[in-house]
């Protein structure tokens, strides 16, 4: 019953993030609060685990997002007219970033298993994806509703 109530609370919080902003912007703070509640609930984190887990997760996400931004820039450049030499350099940079992302994830998983159990750590990636998919579906539903109203 506790999990159902907490999941319902997360849904309502997440809905509030998108429902209040029709121009497709969002309240980053509310979104992150919803993510914290969702992941904490799905991984069944104890308060002492959550206290140590979230700072490590946030640091990991920040570094990963920075690398993803760099990867997007490379992909944009690769889609333009470039020489073979430049293309070769972009491929090299892309592989380097991918390796750095893998190294970052390995380090994060090693570190986080000192705070949460290996089974919780194994579920983390999929739980985070579930949250993202849920947001996407909710946003898609909201977009369809707006199109019908117009």
Automatic annotation (TrEMBL):
The keyword Signal applies. Residues 57-107 form a coiled coil. The keyword Coiled coil applies. InterPro entries: LTXXQ. GO terms for cellular component: periplasmic space. Keywords: Coiled coil, Signal. Residues 1-19 form the signal peptide. This is LTXXQ motif family protein. It comes from Indibacter alkaliphilus (strain CCUG 57479 / KCTC 22604 / LW1).
């Amino acid at each position: 019953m506790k999990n159902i109530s907490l999941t319902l609370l997360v849904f309502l919080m997440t809905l509030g993030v998108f429902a209040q902003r029709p121009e497709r912007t969002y309240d980053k703070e509310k979104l992150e609060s919803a993510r914290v509640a969702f992941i904490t609930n799905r991984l069944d984190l104890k308060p002492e685990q959550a206290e140590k887990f979230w700072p490590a997760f946030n640091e990991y996400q920040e570094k990963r997002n920075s690398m993803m931004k760099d990867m997007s820039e490379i992909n944009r450049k690769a889609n333009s007219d470039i020489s073979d030499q430049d293309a070769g350099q972009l491929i090299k940079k892309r592989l380097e970033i991918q390796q750095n992302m893998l190294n970052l994830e390995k380090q994060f998983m090693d570190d986080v298993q000192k705070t949460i159990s290996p089974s919780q750590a194994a579920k983390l990636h999929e739980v985070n994806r579930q949250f993202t998919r849920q947001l996407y579906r909710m946003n898609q539903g909201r977009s369809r509703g707006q199109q019908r109203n117009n």
